User: Which sequence fits this backbone?
C-alpha cells in the first residue's frame, strides 16, 4: 500500500491536475484536503478539456473514488454547477464522490467580503480569486463557520444562517456594500444541499476503513507552497495549508500513514495575483502568452512568468519533505537558445541561498542565474527519457538536483501520453 501526497512546489498552477490524472491510474481513492473553488486544475482527455475546481481530478477515471475532505471549503452552489458541467461532458458522478460533513461552507457574504477587503486594500491588494476563500477560513478559525453537516439539516441551517446573515449584513453596510437577502441565500443553498446530501458522509471513517482494505490513496494538493498560509509569501497567500501537512489535517489521515510526497513544478515559474516573484521576466511572459499559454484556469487572468527558481523549490522540498519531483511544461522552453535557473538571491551585497520570510526583503532580492544551453527542438513527442534532447536532460537533472529531490516524472504536453515516468 502506498499513500501519496502531491503538492505544488511553486506558486500554484504547476500542472497538479494533469499529474494527478496520470497517477490516478494506479490509485484507488483521490482526496482533496484544502482550498476551495479558487483552484483550477486542467486535464485534457483527447480533445476534451476539463477544469476541476472542487472535485478531485481523479474523477475522470472510471471506478476511482474521489473525496472532498474536511479541510476543503465548499461553495455548494458552485459544486453543484461543477457536477452538472462534468455530467454534460460525460463524467458520471454518483457513488464515486464523497463529501466530508465537517467541510466548511463558503457563503455569499464571504465572496462579498473578499471583494470589499480587496477594494479597501487598494494598491496593496492580494489579487485573490474573489471566491470568498479568506473570509470562509476566517470564520472557520473564529468558530462561526457553517459546515456541510449544517447544510443538510434544514432547520439547523436556517437558524445558523439567520444569525450569520444578520451580522455580515452589518459589516457589508459598513463597507458601503449591498446587504444580502436571507431568503435568496437560504433557498439557493438549501436546494444545493438537497442535491449534495447523498454525497455527504463521515469521510474520516471512510478513509480509515479503506486503508484497512489496503486501498491506495492520492492526496491532491491545491495552490502551491508559496501560497501556504504559514510557509508562503504572507500576506500574498491563500488561506489554507497548501503544504504536505495540510493533507493530514485536511483528511484526518495520520502523518505516518503517508508514504511519499511528490512535488509538482514547472520548468519555469508562474504566479497569478500580487506578491513577490523574484525571477519574474517579461520576455518569458511575452513568449509564453504569445504561445497562448499561462492564462489562469479559474479567473482567466494572465499569469506572471519567470525563470525557474531553485531557491524557491529547495524551500518547497524542505517544508513538504518532497521525495520525488514531477516537472511539467518542459515544452514551454523548447524554442530558447539559453535556459536560465536561479541558484541564489542577491540582497544588499549579500548572497542568500534561502527564501527570506519578509516579503519586502524578498521583493528586493535579485536572482543569481546559471545559464544552460537550450535544446531548440520540440520535446512534445518524446515518450522516454532518452527521447529528450541531451540539453533538456541536462537542464532537468540540474534543476532536480538544485531542488534537492529525485526527478521521477517529466511532462512535455498537456495530454496523458505526454508524460515520461522515470
Ligand atoms: P494546476 O492548478 O496545478 O492543476 O495547473 P493548471 O491546470 O491551473 O495549469 C497548468 C496548465 O498547464 C494547464 O493548462 C495544463 O493543461 C497545462 N499543462 C500541464 N502540464 C503540461 C505540459 O507538460 N506541457 C504543456 N504544454 N501544458 C501542460
Ligand atoms: P491551483 O490549485 C494559482 C492565488 C490568487 C491570489 C492568492 C489568494 O489551480 O494551483 P484566494 O482566492 O485563494 O484568496 O487568492 O492565491 N491563488 C492561486 N494561484 N493557482 C491556484 O490554485 C490559486 N488559488 C489561489 O491568485 O494571488
Ligand atoms: Mg490551477
Assistant:
Amino acid at each position: 500500500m502506498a499513500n501519496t501526497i502531491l503538492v505544488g512546489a511553486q506558486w500554484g498552477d504547476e500542472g497538479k491536475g494533469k499529474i494527478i490524472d496520470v497517477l490516478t491510474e494506479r490509485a484507488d481513492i483521490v482526496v482533496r484536503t484544502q482550498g476551495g473553488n479558487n483552484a483550477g486544475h486542467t486535464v485534457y482527455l483527447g480533445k476534451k478539456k476539463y477544469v476541476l475546481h472542487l472535485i478531485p481530478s481523479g474523477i475522470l477515471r472510471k471506478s476511482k473514488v474521489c473525496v472532498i475532505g474536511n479541510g476543503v471549503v465548499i461553495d455548494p452552489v458552485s459544486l453543484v454547477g461543477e457536477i452538472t458541467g462534468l455530467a454534460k461532458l460525460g463524467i458520471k458522478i454518483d457513488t464515486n464522490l464523497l463529501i466530508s460533513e465537517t467541510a466548511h461552507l463558503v457563503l455569499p457574504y464571504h465572496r462579498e467580503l473578499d471583494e470589499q477587503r480587496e477594494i479597501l486594500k487598494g494598491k496593496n491588494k492580494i489579487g485573490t480569486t474573489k471566491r470568498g476563500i479568506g473570509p470562509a477560513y476566517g470564520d472557520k478559525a473564529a468558530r462561526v463557520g457553517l459546515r456541510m453537516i449544517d447544510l443538510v439539516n434544514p432547520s439547523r441551517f436556517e437558524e445558523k444562517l439567520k444569525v450569520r446573515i444578520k451580522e455580515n449584513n452589518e459589516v457589508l453596510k459598513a463597507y458601503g456594500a449591498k446587504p444580502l437577502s436571507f431568503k435568496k441565500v437560504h433557498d439557493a443553498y438549501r436546494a444545493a444541499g438537497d442535491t449534495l446530501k447523498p454525497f455527504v458522509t463521515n469521510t474520516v471513517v471512510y478513509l480509515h476503513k479503506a486503508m484497512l482494505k489496503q486501498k491506495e490513496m492520492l492526496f491532491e494538493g491545491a495552490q502551491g507552497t508559496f501560497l501556504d498560509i504559514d510557509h508562503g509569501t504572507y500576506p500574498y497567500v491563500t488561506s489554507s495549508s497548501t503544504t504536505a501537512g495540510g493533507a493530514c489535517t485536511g483528511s484526518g489521515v495520520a502523518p505516518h500513514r503517508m508514504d511519499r510526497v511528490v512535488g509538482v513544478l514547472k520548468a519555469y515559474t508562474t504566479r497569478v495575483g500580487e506578491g513577490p516573484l523574484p525571477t519574474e521576466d517579461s520576455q518569458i511572459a511575452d513568449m509564453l502568452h504569445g504561445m497562448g499559454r499561462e492564462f489562469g484556469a479559474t479567473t482567466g487572468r494572465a499569469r506572471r512568468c519567470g525563470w525557474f527558481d531553485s531557491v524557491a523549490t529547495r524551500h518547497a522540498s524542505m517544508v513538504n519533505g518532497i521525495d520525488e519531483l514531477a516537472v511539467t511544461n518542459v515544452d514551454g522552453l523548447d524554442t530558447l537558445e539559453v535556459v536560465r535557473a536561479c541558484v541564489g538571491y542577491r540582497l544588499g551585497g549579500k548572497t542568500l541561498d534561502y527564501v527570506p520570510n519578509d516579503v519586502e526583503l524578498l521583493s528586493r532580492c535579485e536572482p543569481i542565474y546559471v545559464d544552460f544551453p537550450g535544446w531548440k527542438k520540440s520535446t512534445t513527442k518524446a515518450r522516454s527519457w532518452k527521447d529528450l534532447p541531451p540539453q533538456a536532460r541536462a537542464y532537468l537533472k540540474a534543476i532536480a538536483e538544485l531542488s534537492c529531490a529525485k526527478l521521477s516524472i517529466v511532462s512535455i504536453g498537456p495530454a496523458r501520453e505526454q508524460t515520461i515516468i522515470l
In short: Residues 12-13, 39-41, 297 surround magnesium ion (ligand 3) (CB under 6 Å). The radius of gyration is 21 Å.
